[in-house]
């Protein structure tokens, strides 16, 4: 049975009001808290608490929550309130399928076209991943992992690609964080990234594509296992049960 709890708004980063509209900043703050599981699936989102923590009125919070609902990250339940959406294996499978199509096309192009300057940036990211593995810094490694894939998409020259990839795989991003505490998973991910990096360095398009396919192919079996281990984080999908 799924549990319900209130979000701890004290964990919500305060906004700086430096860039973007107030609604955009509130939306981004809440979104990051959901994607990084600071606000777990099923948790109640109380607008008054968010307003107090961020020092804003109800209007930008309400607009931000409406955007999150459109993205599938929260559920607005009439006469019940707002809660962080549960993970859905159906949506995760779709996100993995779409993300893999984008990633394979990306790595094939980058293996052919990568510049010296781009290669240096990717190499620095790999060194950072190695340091984070040594420190056993799971959250830090996750950020470096995201940066690794983001750099590859940036190197294609298609400016909207990274944003589109994130949009189609929001549920995947949430679920992947749950895998980081798995013993040995960070080291395995680094080895998979190293295989991709080495293939790109050799400008071997086929090997780079194969390495990316192997890397992404690990995800669904692990997430399916996770669903059985932590069913309270997932909603029941009719096609899965």
From TrEMBL:
Keywords: DNA-binding, Transcription, Transcription regulation
A molecular-function term among this protein's GO annotations: DNA binding
Top-rank taxon, per record: Bacteria
Transmembrane segments: none
UniProt keyword Amino-acid biosynthesis present: no
One family name in Pfam for this protein: GntR
Record-annotated HTH gntR-type domain positions: 20-87
InterPro entries assigned: GntR_C, TF_FadR/GntR_C, Tscrpt_reg_HTH_GntR, WH-like_DNA-bd_sf, WH_DNA-bd_sf
PANTHER family in UniProt: HTH-TYPE TRANSCRIPTIONAL REPRESSOR RSPR, TRANSCRIPTIONAL REGULATOR, GNTR FAMILY
Protein name per the record: DNA-binding transcriptional regulator, GntR family
